User: What shape does this take?
Amino acid sequence: MTSVVSSSIRTIRIGSRKSQLALVQTHWVQEQLQKRFPEISFEVHTMATQGDKILDVALAKIGDKGLFTKELELGMLNQEIDFAVHSLKDLPTRLPEGLALAAVTERENPADALVVHEKYKDKQIDTLPEGAVIGTSSLRRLAQLRYHFPHLSFKDVRGNLNTRMSKLDAGEYDALILAVAGLERLGMSDRIHQVLSKEVSLHAVGQGALGIECRADDAELISLLKAIEHPETRDRCLAERAFLRDLEGGCQVPIGVNTEINGDTLTLTGIVASVDGKKLVKDTVSGETEDAEKLGTELAQKVREQGAQEILNEIFAEIQRNS
Ligand SMILES: NCc1[nH]cc(CCC(=O)O)c1CC(=O)O
Assistant: This one.
């Protein structure tokens, strides 16, 4: 195969979803690479993914992994594009044969944010009234918030950020829970009413980071992509992804994490919660950053022993019943 760098065609094709957030992220990656490799031309090719097309079904019900990535992955395997930029949290923990996670860029704030309707601008997550309707389509957010605030109501919300904001402002919801990172990237930081603490909501695996996926045998492209990798974010996300990979069974599960690095020590905290908000298992492990993935597996083992497996089995059984 001709290599990307030494071939006469110095063009690298970047695949992206068409959503505004995806394009902001992809253009950022394009710009970072263009700055470092001015002799190479980086082109953006957009593709609609299943997740962009199915907008009327609750995400948790679709339950399918790779909803936002499959078309881009086919594009790479078919040599139509060379790499794809993903929100790392949307990238399944197991990649198709022949593809690899080449680089992870520096993470934005990975926390979740509370965005409120005007009428609740004086409230916080713990002072919203009984029955206030919170919009979220994430089982992870739902389970944790139900656990801490059983008096709140929850309603599914889909669509891009602008759509969700319009629904909130129109009064369909009293508040939304959204990723800080997405709001910041789209210039909506002013809508962040409260950044949720890790006591209230542990974030999703990979949240706030971008993952760059390419063909596993494209060594020259991988070495280019390493130029924009952020090693600390990569180590944190590798630990988080190993934890999730070990626990999930091919569907959306209420799992949250937090990671910190101090010197060479990585600390990973994880929770598994039941969707009804009644059970929550939480634990922490620490070790060398170079053992990031081993730490994820170790934590998965620990939470399993404390009841996480039962919680997951119930969720898998529920999905089986509904399908
Ligand atoms: N599930 C959708 C999704 N995928 C990535 C982000 C933005 C945050 C990120 O990059 O992690 C969002 C929006 C959200 O969760 O509010």
Q: What stands out?
A: The mean pLDDT is 92. The chain has ten helices and 13 strands.
